[in-house]
Amino acid sequence: MPTTDCCSQPGLMPIENAREKLLQALSPVHGTETLPLVQAAGRVLAEEVSSSVNLPPCDNSAMDGYALRFEDLASGLPLELIGKSFAGAPFDGVVNPGTCVRIMTGAALPAGADTVVMQENVAAQDESIRITCEVRPGDHIRRCGEDVPEGSILLKAGARISVAHIALLAAAGAGTVTVLRKPVIALFSTGDELRQPGEALAKGDIYDSNRIALLAALAQMDLQVLDLGILPDSKQAITDALRRAAQEADAIITSGGVSVGEADYTREVLEELGDIGFWKVAMKPGKPFAFGFLQGTPFFGLPGNPVSALVTFYQLAVPALHVMQGDQWNGGPHTLQAKLLQPLKKKPGRTDFQRGVYHTDDNGVLVVEPVGTQGSHILTGLATANCFIVLAQESGSVEAGEQVVIEPLGVPLG
Predict the structure, then answer these.
(1) What is the pLDDT at residue 2?
(2) I need a labelling partner for 235 at 20 to 30 A (CA). Which of 9, 258, 373, 400 fits?
(3) 95 close to 69: Cβ distance less than 8 angstroms
(4) Claim to verify: residue 234 and residue 274 sit in the same structural domain
(5) Are 376 and 404 in contact (CB under 8 A)?
(6) How confident is the model at residue 233 (pLDDT cuts 50, 70, 90)?
(7) Residue 333 pLDDT more than 90?
(8) What's the domain range around 161?
(9) How far apart are CA 161 and CA 179, in angstroms?
């Protein structure tokens, strides 16, 4: 009689379904704050911003040259130089027939002028100039409001503010912006064997890499963290920590304690105090992932194995946290197709996220190969990888030379 693959057992939720449930269950946090523009990079805009000015604010020169009337060029006569226009020090007279003004890049176009001739195409002599090339009407003029008309929307609510956005907002004179407040994420690890890096290890102890890595990941995502440290395998300690986290944080992330071991209390406490939306996902690594709510606060229970913890965080928790920050999820991770250089073993039943390195070969073909041992405790492979090789839940082993889906790693793993 054939044996049942444990990966195909009932109760494992496909990762696509799990991700969709997470995204549907969460919403942006309430509350806003107003920040100086220089502090707003990476934050999510709470209110749309409109421009109170035209950009550019007036017609100005795109070149160093001479501002003149195009119709005056038809005579072929020299033009009288009557002044200069600099950025910040415009010419306040009028360009009348037969005259011109020396103008610098960014300087306001003088009244009466409608064309700028770049200085390389002008022969200047004393107080007059001659044009030495063909000129088109309106050459080298940046028109008032051609970039941003006054009153137009610069950024809509929900935009994550980039440095380029800040440049645009600053150019339009916005000194402050109203952004969503940062979600507060409570974080702790569980395990009697865990020690803080730098402490001495007794027999059977290991260092707590999960919490340290997650602290760094949450910082890269610009989230505020309530660090509850390392908890012992104590039901009471975990109960107290979860109750505090539910009161003080917008979401809870734990590492370890969601499996089926005798000392894995986190899931048990969550079932008593809250509701588990789902537990066990059809993914490898990372099957024992739990999601639910504790007194209305979302809870993400990551596995204890270090690679499993980081892969489930990246694939499931990160999209959900983006929603809480106010981001719009784009419907799925960015993927590419690459040629596999080495065969990969796989059994149907779970979506497999094998750690890999991709590059373009000498023939311009995108290729990928797995990195080292793929065990859920092997951190060196994840540290070396620049992508996941994503093998679909129903697929089996893959031979070298086949096309596979890869997911390049981004923030906070990349």
Answers:
(1) 36
(2) 9
(3) yes
(4) yes
(5) no
(6) confident
(7) no
(8) 32-54+148-180
(9) 9
